[in-house]
């Protein structure tokens, strides 16, 4: 999972031409000679999808191995009103919910009065690094991962915990910790439950 680019663009009301305001790219995985072309392609992709995203709309567009997650919102009022568009370009494995959570955060923090760029917004580079691991950046994903790990432990049956060849029935019979009535309860409960098993 990887984010390759985060960009913020602006568009005047009624216009379909977005202007770049701020951007941060992580193209270190490409060869030195490819980095310029990749950065240029990422800027072109962001502008293209930004031009075609209406205010209030969220969409994810796949292009080759990349997915551009786009969110546009109107900001300002009167003569300062314009559309601010955030674009996160990631690989296909990156969680969509985390990408849009990041876009919300960026558009909330971005200076609303900026309509033409470039704009100094160093937080983009920080977010680009922080959100590379979505589990660390996103609390809900982190909790979900912890729950999934717990679920694996909970799904083990008592038989899988016992040593190979051991059966719970023989352990109950040999146990000194259980009273005769507890042993009787276990056997009768097992007998009642076994009547409902369909083979």
Spatial shape: elongated
**Order of strands in the sheet with most strands:** 2-1-5-4-3
Distance between the termini: 44 Å
The residue fraction in helices comes out at: 40-55%
How many structural domains does the protein architecture include? 1
The CATH class, by name, is: Alpha Beta
Q: Might you state the CATH topology name? A: Beta-Lactamase
Domain V-SNARE coiled-coil homology: 139-199
Organism: Mixia osmundae (strain CBS 9802 / IAM 14324 / JCM 22182 / KY 12970)
Keywords: Cell membrane, Coiled coil, Lipoprotein, Membrane, Methylation, Palmitate, Prenylation
Pfam family, one: Synaptobrevin
What's this model, at a glance?
By secondary structure, this protein is of the alpha+beta class.
Describe the overall structure.
This protein has a single domain, classed as Beta-Lactamase. It has helices spanning 35-51, 96-109, 123-130, 134-137, 139-154, 158-161, 168-174, 180-194; strands at residues 3-11, 19-25, 58-63, 66-75, 82-91. It has a five-stranded antiparallel sheet, sandwiched between helices. With 199 residues, the protein is α+β, with helices and mostly antiparallel strands. It contains eight helices and five strands.
């Amino acid at each position: 999972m990887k984010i390759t680019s985060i960009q913020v663009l602006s568009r005047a009301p009624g216009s379909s031409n977005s202007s770049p305001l701020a951007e941060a790219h992580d193209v270190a995985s490409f060869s030195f000679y490819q980095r310029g072309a990749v950065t240029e392609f990422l800027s072109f992709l962001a502008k293209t999808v930004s031009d075609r995203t209406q205010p209030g709309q969220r969409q994810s567009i796949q292009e080759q191995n990349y997915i551009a997650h786009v969110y546009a919102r109107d900001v300002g009022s009167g003569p300062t009103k314009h559309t601010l568009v955030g674009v996160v370009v990631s690989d296909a494995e990156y969680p969509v919910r985390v990408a849009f959570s990041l876009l919300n955060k960026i558009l909330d923090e971005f200076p609303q009065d900026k309509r033409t760029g470039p704009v100094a917004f160093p937080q983009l580079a920080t977010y680009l690094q922080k959100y590379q691991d979505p589990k660390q950046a996103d609390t809900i994903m982190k909790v979900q991962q912890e729950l999934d790990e717990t679920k694996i432990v909970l799904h083990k049956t008592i038989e899988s915990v016992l040593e190979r060849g051991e059966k719970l029935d023989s352990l109950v019979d040999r146990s000194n910790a259980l009273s005769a009535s507890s042993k009787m309860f276990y056997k009768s409960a097992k007998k009642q439950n076994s009547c409902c098993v369909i083979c």
